[in-house]
Amino acid sequence: MNQEFVLRPHPDYVRNQAMYRTYHHLYHGGETLKRNAGEYLSRRLREPQEVYEERLSRVFYENYIGSIVDWYAATLFRREPIVTYESGKDRGKVFFGQLLEDCDRKGTALGDFLRQQFTHALVYGRSYTLVDFPRQTGRASNQAEEDALGFSRAYLTGFTPEQMVNWAYDEVGRFEWVVFRQERLVPRGGMNPAWEKETRWYYFSKQQYKLFRAFGTETPELIGEGPHGFTALNQVPVFELTVSDGMWLMNKAALLQLEHFNKSNAQAWAISMGLFAMPVIYSDREWQQVIGESYYLKLGADDRFGWTEPQGKVYEIAAENLKRLKEEIYRVSYLLNQAGGPQNFGQSGLSKQRDFTVTQEVLRGYGDAVKDFAKRVLRGIDRARNDELEINVTGLDEFDIGDFTNEIDDAKKLLGFGIRSDTLRRQIYRRLTYKYLCDVRQDIKDRISSEINDWLDEGEGSDNNE
């Protein structure tokens, strides 16, 4: 496969590139959208360029969808996911304890990384995670040497659909190969460097990786290649987190948000122009007087003077339309109960509860997708490292943190049935402990889990000693 074909954008990427750019701007809002407002603020037919430029300089953006996406991410990860790993090799337990605290070699905890990838999925419909290993500069004869040299220290790198420019699938729908592209500014030029754009392409197939680099408009050159950490598994080390079209929030709300953006800016411009009222002279004779703040008018007996002022009916219609657009943005995002405003004051308690129930079900759907994604990533790393651990991911299913006593009472009732299952008891104790100590370091959680296992193995946790 030649280099030109690999680095060429995929037809789907070319088709969706403008959409991803728009969604990026709508999510970030602020100065990001203002700098690109010319792409979204509609110009009126035959509108003078000077007027349109002045409207662009005054543009503003009420970013509802960005807040909605962040609310879902914050609510879903109000408690971090619970990652458990049992059996297997001790080296694996040590490694995964470190990975959960620092999954990208930048000090990012796994929960924070998953939140970031989930946010990207709500904006772009999907996000990608690359599992990579440090480049080996020598040769290790066994796993102990690999660990000592850091060659087995897997880490994660997140990418968005804006960065995955080419790909192919095999006959069963898995990735055959992928290409990511990253751009950054780097100083280049010896003693008097200048900032220049560096572009890198990362190619990963089932058996090897290739790294290409180009500065400015130069021809890309190959600067690295070889096997990757998943070569022995015959698998591309890339994992995809997707949400269904119905739960792709940005795609559902983007057009509504753009319509609201144009209507709100048009209304604001009209109101501003209304504040600078124009004088109107009612006279049958020729008018030649100069009008200004430092001048006076001399009118005839039958002349009249007034000011232009809008009656306000169109503003009422515009205000109602903006209100409806805002409600619709929240409705398609399953958050109508959070739209705010007087329209919700008369809503019954049962109706509010039903609306929030829908939101909770959507959150649980998101939680299932994230947990499945996390399990695939962690279990893939386990297979690549050959740690033989039993890895599971739970949590992300409680969105109202209330009194912890309720959960303790539920656990007591379940244990009170006398179900003689040490596995059940271990899971209950571990789940309670991890939820209560959700902010504690992973190595302490692992130590507590080990102590719970030892305690139950010694028989001290039997039914007679509850």
Taking pLDDT < 50 over at least 5 consecutive residues as the criterion, the unreliable ranges are none
Question: From N to C, what is the helix and strand string?
Answer: HHHHHEHHEHEEEEEEEHEEHHEHHH
Question: Based on CA inertia axes, which overall geometry fits?
Answer: flat
Instruction: Give, in spatial order, the strands making up the sheet with the most strands.
Output: 4-5-6-7-8
Average pLDDT, to the nearest integer? Answer: 85
Query: In total, how many beta strands?
Result: 12
Using only C-alpha atoms, the radius of gyration works out to 30 Å
Count of alpha/pi helices: 14
Strand content: 15-25%
User: The biggest beta sheet, please?
Assistant: 5 strands, antiparallel
Termini separation comes to 65 Å
- What class do helices, strands and sheet pairing give? alpha+beta
Residue share in helix: 40-55%
Jot down its keywords.
466 residues; alpha+beta; three-stranded antiparallel sheet
Précis, in short:
This protein has 466 residues and is an alpha+beta fold. The protein is built from 14 helices and twelve strands. Among the domains are: 94 residues; 64 residues, no CATH class.
